[in-house]
Structure formats: structure tokens, C-alpha cells
Amino acid sequence: MAHGYERALRHLGHHVRAFNYHTQLAFYDKAFRFWNAEKRVENEDEAILLLASEQAVLEAVDFVPHWVLIVNGFALHRRAYDLLDRLCLPMAILLTESPWLDAEQATIASQGHVRLVFTNERESVRSLHELTGLPVVYLPHSYNSGIHFPQRVNGEHESDLFFAGTMWPERLRLVDGLERWARRYHKGWNIDIRRVNMMTGRNSDALIANEELARRYCGTRIALNHHRTVRSIDGQSGTEKHQQATSLGPRAYEIAACSAFQLCDAQPELAEVFGDSVATYADAKDLRRKVTYYLANDAERHQMAAEANRRVLRCSFEQRAADILLPAMMEVHDSG
Fold it and tell me: What is the pTM of this model?
């Protein structure tokens, strides 16, 4: 998401300095591990976050931006927020974990001197505003037009059904059941499921880069899209806490941008964005029925995928930046 908006803002003619926070974290992590061979440092993780975050302030002093846009914000140390505020640099934050972590995100926003909040979940706008007292703007998910676009792929990327994502329990039950059913009744189907471990963010093969993911979407006959509903899991009892998001996740836009056929759970926002160009299923039984039907109806799949692609063109990062991100920043800046 950060790379998507960086590219979009540059494309729109704005000067952007992207702070590579991950590189700074890796540098200080290695430095402390080397130093700790001689001397142990208390609160090492806190010190790494602090030093890496302070580098963002140095870059801001050098660049002197009109706005600082913080994406997510969980890993950025409070010291960075304080110092950027002392420099009188207006900050906006894009909260990416709504509605799952709204209380925690509201704490970051309200204590971080930010002037404007963006959220990818429309139902969180009011609650975040009430929790923070700040202006909150709904910024729907997007896709990177430089990565997600229709393209020809080779046999390696072709499949009958493809899904890649974090294996929250409801997803794991769904895809495991689908695979067992397909092995029993449809042995000739090529079902490509890439399971990302919920706890580590890894799978047995390694995470799939966005460029590779786009090729997989372009090569599949059906791209499965099942939105997350589990908010958290109790580590001792294994009890699942559920929460329903109402806004579409990024996968919905990325699949459509690749002009791939999408089979999706029935999200409230789906029809508003895509009309009837995206097929839906109600439960595991309905999913099996829809997979069977659409694999047998190529022309209908292609027609729906083409219409979904037409509808998603206005949803790129460039469009979101031009239509929502920049106007909201201008309004807050002028009112301040």
C-alpha cells in the first residue's frame, strides 16, 4: 500500500521522499546483535525501534515535506511522532487494520499529533472519529496499475482455481474442504492454494511477490476471494472472536484489475463497486456448486471478468490519490 501511493503521487507530479523503515530496522537489529556480543543492552527491541524511527525525522528535516503520510503506524516509535510535531510538519495516518484493531489504531492516531486519519473500512469512520476527535476519511483499497493488469502467462502460472492468503481459521476450513472435495470428485482440476501462516506471515514456499501474484491471477480460470471474519484467537482456549468488515479488501480490486474472473464471498460493498460482474457464494456447499458451474461456462466467466475490469479502472492508487487522498489533505491544511 505504501509503495502504491508513493508511485501514484509521483505519477501525479508530486515530489515524494519514501522512508525505508524496514532497512533501518534491519540495520539496527544487526548492529545490536554485533554489539551484544560484548555488552547486553536493556530493552533492545525498544532501542531498535527508537533509533530506526529517529532516522525518519532526519529525512524529514532534509526534505521538508508539506505533509508526512504514515502508513499503518504501529511500528513507528512515539519519539518520531513527537519530533515531527515539533518541526510543525502536518501528519496524516492511513490505518490499514480496520475494523480489527480500531481501538489500538485510535490510540496511535490520538496520541501521535496527527491531523488527518484515513481508514480502509468505511464502517470505522464514525467510531474512529469518536475515539480520536480527528477528521476521518474513508479511503477504499486500491490496486497498483503498474503490477495488476491483464497479461499473457505461461503454463506454470495457469490453474483452474487459485487462492493465496493468510490462513485465518475460516479460510483454512473453506479451502481444505474444497480441496478434499475436488480430490474426490474432480481429480483433473488444478487447484493452486498458497497458504500463508497466520502467526508468522510465511508459508512453506515463501511469500508470493505482488508481481508473481498478478501473474497467477491472470493465469487462473477462477480466482477465489474470501474475506477475513476472525478478529482474533484466544491462545489458550482457541476461541475465535469474529467481526465482519463491510468494505472490500485489496484482493477484490487486484483480481479485477488483472481481468481475472473472481468468485467472492458476499461482501456488502461488492455490488456497489462491481455490480453483478463478480460472482458470489454463500457457504462451502454453494462455493462447490459455483466452482463447478463457472468452470463449465467459459464465455460467461470471460464476460464477467471483462466487465469487472472495466469497473475497477477508476479504483487505482492514482485515482484514489487524486480523488480522495490529496483533496482531504488540502481541506485539512486550508482549515488549519
Answer: 0.91
